[in-house]
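INFO batch 0412 | record 1 of 1 | parsing
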Amino acid sequence: MKEYNSFKYIFPPRPETRTPPTGLGTYERMGFIAQPKLNGSCALLFTNGSQAKLMGRHNNTFVRQLIPEETLCSLHRGAGWMVLVGEYMNKSQRDSKGNLFNARLVIFDILVHNGKHLVGSTFGQRQALLDSLYDTKPYDDFISSIGGPLYRVNNITQDFTGNYTRATGVQMYEGLVLKRPTGSLENGMREANNTGWQVKIRKPTKNYSY
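INFO prediction complete | emitting tokens
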């Protein structure tokens, strides 16, 4: 693990490989972890507890970011910098209850904690770290509330096909992202880092078939 003592942009882990829903059972048998794929904007939160930067996946800032900085800082745990990865919900999507789900941040990974860039850690280890850092309350089958506009995705380990069907019946869920629990975190200095241990399965739209 490397020292991370001041703000420096890190590209988020993102799946590039697509696979059709017919492959869900295979990945489940291989022991992958599924997370819901939300229809928002991929975001990284860089915070040291007193300041917070919410940035997009292209090293960009959001034109309209509606979550107060003090609320984002409330996610800080430990000492020094931490970097969380999630989805900033800014596309006026509706949740499973039919309500607009805007100006919310839904966390799905952690890259830096206690001033250490977690290079070499596995996806499973980082999920266990998030489990230890945040208490949550269920919101629906796919996300849980941390408090206010802050949420975390639920990890799914069984019934991938059924969960895919249920998720894609809700507007704000595009499908599932399947992640190998032993996948090792790379340094994130390039956008293509960390694509090899995850795949995405999306519901069909006019822009893509799955």
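INFO post-check: The longest helix spans residues 123-133.
INFO record closed
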